[in-house]
Amino acid sequence: MLISVSKKACRHLPWLNLGGAKLHARWSSSSYLKQASTFHGSCEAFASPNTHAHRDTVERRAHRAPLQIADQDTAGLVGPEDLVIVFGTTTAGDRPELVQATRFWRKGVAAFIATNGNVSETELRVGQINNEVYVTYPDSTDGRTQYPGDTRAALAPLLAHRALRGQYKWLLYGDDDTLWFMNGVLDLAGKMDSSMPYIITDAGYWHNWSKPGFHARFDEDGPLQCLPCNFPAAEWREAEGSAFTPPIACPCTTQLLCDADQRGILSKDCQMPEWFRMIHHIDGGAGALISHGLMEALDADAYEACVTSGDGIASDYLFSYCMWQSGFAPTFPSFNSMPRDIPKEHTLFNPAALLDTHHNPDRAATVANLLAAIERRESCDPPCVGRLMSMVSLHLKAQHTANMQSGIFLLRSISGLYDSFLASNNKTGLTKWPLVRFDKSKEPSSGWDRKDVPVMQKAFRKYDFGLLNEDHPAHLREKG
């Protein structure tokens, strides 16, 4: 894996000392590594003869100059500088134009971009101005996955963690056409502890032979997700005939979910259902918030080996499967964890994604609600405003638009409407958000052995529309 920087920046990268192996940067026009091809204009780290493995030394070197990310010890606050948007992309076709268009709504929030080809010096300079880091990782050519870039996209969080040396609190992991709404992101991130291993999302797919076809959103029959600590469990109502109630846990571990498995969906040795008999995975386009704590706890080598050798339909399946193999599963933060009679648009990630239509978000409904809220029409009542204020992401599905320019126009339009909506509700600009309090005297949920990781005391504050209440009864503060 090579980090693409300008030739000038490459020359000024400092000497490093990793376990006695001295490294320095070398500008390279053509060379080859085991895990990643070097493209014209790449920066390579090389070592003295007594070095560790080449992959390890290269990937542990970080190019930090263009990033503006807060230190991990910024106690009690979470802000834009604590976030890094992470995605895989390709240089093929007009996808680079889509990547550049993210600058309109990112507004300086750092981006880590894993691509398959050369990035010009000019684009690198512009990228540095826009707080971007590019990493090259080759396409897969062995036919294991649906797209050649799936391995790269599934590895993107790990590549980011290595390159950034952990200088972030949250990775916003999605596709290159995922639009993140920063007000909702910061609101959600401010309720969760970034030192706890978390994969936070309420959007995913499930499939099994008894219910043919792919379906948007996770199914209650599948024990592959947890509710966050201190979730108001009294408000959870198991659907008619469902055999699974998600455990309340922090963090969400595979062992906890196996213990909660009442239908025998998982194997006796706690393995995810075998491909293709049953499939559960996050929606990569809707995205997920990945905590610094997760990436620190992850066995990076095992995860990488899983991704680079596993079969699967797409990158989001590879990510979900290999995280499961590593011991971690998603935590659902929001309305999708509520009873079935609450409409599906009550979700934070990719709101209004339609059930039984694979993963096509109802973008028109989001646009209509934003317009109605800006104009203060009755069609967007207070619960509607609350949902817009808290929504986290929207998958644009750019390839389903007439052309890339249409997709970019849609991206800019929705982002502009969102900014106008925030301004109309006295939310101008991104600010620091206070973190909720944590009860450090509690032990983490069973299955997690990091004794000093704090467990959340309050995961949610009370919303105006009354679906979640911070005044939980005492019994809800017990371990999940």
Care to describe what's here?
The chain has helices at 7-11, 54-60, 95-106, 121-129, 150-164, 182-189, 254-260, 292-297, 300-309, 315-325, 363-374, 382-390, 404-424, and strands at 2-4, 16-18, 21-28, 31-32, 37-38, 42-47, 77-78, 83-88, 110-115, 132-136, 170-173, 178-180, 199-200, 204-208, 211-216, 278-282, 288-291, 393-395, 433-434, 438-439, 455-456. By secondary structure, it is of the alpha+beta class. It folds into two domains: 2-60, no CATH class; 76-344 and 428-480. The strands form seven sheets. Strands 1-10-9-8-11-17-13 form a seven-stranded mixed β-sheet. A three-stranded antiparallel β-sheet has the order 2-3-6. A three-stranded antiparallel β-sheet has the order 15-14-16. The longest helix is centred in the C-terminal third of the chain and has 21 residues, at 404-424.
The total count of helices amounts to: 13
Number of strands: 21
Instruction: Report helical residue fraction.
Output: 25-40%
Question: Given the helix and strand composition, which structural class is it?
Answer: alpha+beta
Q: Largest beta sheet: what is the strand line-up?
A: 1-10-9-8-11-17-13
The geometry reads as globular
Uncertain parts: 1-75, 237-241, 337-342, 354-359, 429-480
Measure the end-to-end span: 40 Å
User: Any idea what the radius of gyration is?
Assistant: 22 Å
Q: Please, what is the average pLDDT?
A: 67
